[in-house]
Specification:
By secondary structure, the protein is mostly helical. The chain has ten helices and no strands. The chain has helices at about 1-10, 10-25, 35-50, 60-85, 90-95, 100-115, 120-125, 130-140, 145-175, 175-200. The chain is elongated, with a radius of gyration of 18 Å. The chain starts with a helix and ends with a helix.
Length: about 200
């Protein structure tokens, strides 16, 4: 089954599914965009023969998958940032009513003012962290140059990590559901660690 999926992975429909899921999960964090990216990478590894330890004759376009996921992540962040920027008093009141959003916005402001945009990268791995940071940066009218370059780096880092998990899982464990499950668990583990670090107050 994975081999047949691997042959389809090169088709535009898979890239479109990945891009749409990653683009929208800034607004709907329940979308399994990371799982989809890992599954696509695992399928590509199966179709290339890499999962059997062979040197593939036709190297799957993992770079295209990374580019697709990273670009969609950046564009989603940009849309959320701009919408929050224009949200006005209604969004400000919604953030003020949420302790989690208010705290995240405060920590983001402190981090960006110190040049600590690494928080944006960390938030990309945390559950709903991307949404909190993108909306918070826009609502607080943080400067574009303080947020978007870090958003681009965050999307690229997350995309490379997710694709690498799918590829390495298939190579080490074979193109099976077990490999996908282990890779997804590693992604969730990184998310749990990022969430823990984000909850810690800056020194």
């Amino acid at each position: 089954m994975w081999e047949s999926m691997g042959s389809l992975e090169a088709g535009p429909w898979m890239y479109a599914m990945v891009a749409l899921s990653v683009l929208l999960d800034v607004f709907l964090p329940v979308l399994p965009s990371g799982v989809l990216v890992i599954t696509a990478a695992t399928a590509a590894a199966a179709g290339s023969g890499a999962s059997a330890g062979q040197v593939p004759h036709l190297v799957p376009d993992f770079l295209a998958l990374v580019f697709c996921a990273a670009t969609a992540s950046f564009l989603g962040d940009l849309v959320a940032y701009r919408l929050a920027w224009r949200g006005g008093a209604r969004l400000d009141r919604a953030i003020a009513r949420s302790r989690r959003l208010s705290s995240a916005q405060e920590r983001l402001g402190e981090a960006l003012s110190r040049g600590g945009g690494a928080l944006v990268v960390l938030a990309r791995f945390a559950p709903a962290g991307r949404s909190l940071v993108s909306l918070g940066a826009g609502a607080a009218h943080r400067r574009v140059r303080d947020f978007l370059p870090w958003s681009a780096l965050a999307g690229l880092t997350w995309a490379v990590y997710s694709v690498a998990l799918g590829y390495l899982g298939a190579q080490w464990l074979g193109a099976t559901w077990v490999a996908t499950a282990v890779s997804v668990a590693a992604l969730f583990g990184a998310g749990a660690g990022a969430g823990y670090l984000m909850r810690r107050r800056p020194a």
